Amino acid sequence: MINVLLTGATGLVGGEVARLLGTASNEADLAGRCRLHALVRDRQRAQSLSTAGVTLIEADLDDLASLAPAVEQMDAVLLVSPATPEMVRQQGNLVDALANAAKASGKSAHVVKISGFMTALDSASRSGRWHAAIEAHIESAGLPATLLRPPFFMQNLLRLQPHSVQGERLAVPLQHGRIAMVDARDLAAVAARGLLDRAQAGARYLVTGPRAVGFDEVARAMSTVLERPVRHDPISPEQMAERLRALGTPAWRIEVVLEFYAGFEAGLAAPLSDTVQRVTGRAPLDLEAFLIAHRDVLRAAC
Questions:
Q1: Which domain holds residue 109?
Q2: The CATH number of the domain where 99 resides is what?
Q3: pLDDT of residue 28
Q4: d(CA 174, CA 294)
């Protein structure tokens, strides 16, 4: 049985991977196939993971020395953390720890890295450049890796309030761009299987939902699910920036958001893939089914 280490286990994707690979998993092809560990900064705040059969390892991505014992004996590692200016350094520290462990033991852990769309060293998106720098670091360290690139999580639609949802208006800086939105749970299902299948090392997967949708279609779907009118009313990037600043959003994050929307408008998030179907054996969840499943949360947000 292999040892799997998760980062981001209290977050959206990492938490779902922990559920899928944990002792309470209802996925027949995943349950009981690994010893699951989670890298956490605060053991007390992550106690709920213990009930899912996850062994907690206290370490800090900002402290390379603390990571050395955490990665010993690990066969596979999920690498995911929020897209922040610190991400390159923090994830790079873990990559360095894994590379050092590989040199000492002669065995390299398989890294499953969650990146994003617009990932390139010369990307117009700083988030894309951050992810590309980490991917390059993994390659230069000689670690086997599976790279996953989702364009946009459907769960983000539940977090648009208060800057983008005002009564019947869904206001984002997007006119015609379409996005191949994916449920984060489908991405997690792909990641979980990648962690258990070293043969996927070397693969670079675009992970999308079943179709690309514009925010006009999102608004119509919300109208149906909420049983009240919701219309897409585009705003300018400057208006979005003003709204985010009013909420106290850091300048760097505002730039990340605007760069994403520029990429969406340019059609960079529209390409589709069959990754979820091929890797998991089932179709990815579509937008309407996602919104119906989260109707109560959507009502509270809108």
A1: 2-153+183-208+270-285
A2: 3.40.50.720
A3: 77
A4: 23
